[in-house]
């Protein structure tokens, strides 16, 4: 998602401003009759409309920046802190998640190929595929065309 500059945010669902992460779990039930200034927060939870298995993004944090998956009843795997930032529910398409799995498999198989393009010694010679710049072929090269439909400008 960093590479394509697209996190698939749910429009209008972001929580922005000063956010305190403590020992809380997400409260996905919002009581519209509650007497509170901002229904997105309770005493012990950030209230987001998250479904079990849905992903969310934290940005602006020193310790917790990143994408996490919500599991109902689990405590968030986050470090306690207060920061000015954003927490956003994400709507990641299933085909994109499948592509992420394929990329992970490709990386596990091909790994970090390093900076060297070829080597030879004795009767042995070895070279790797390179991209259009003459650099080692990466997952970004291998999956560029399939990632392009989801790409956003930076």
TrEMBL record:
Name under which the protein is recorded: Uncharacterized protein
Organism of provenance: Anaerobutyricum hallii
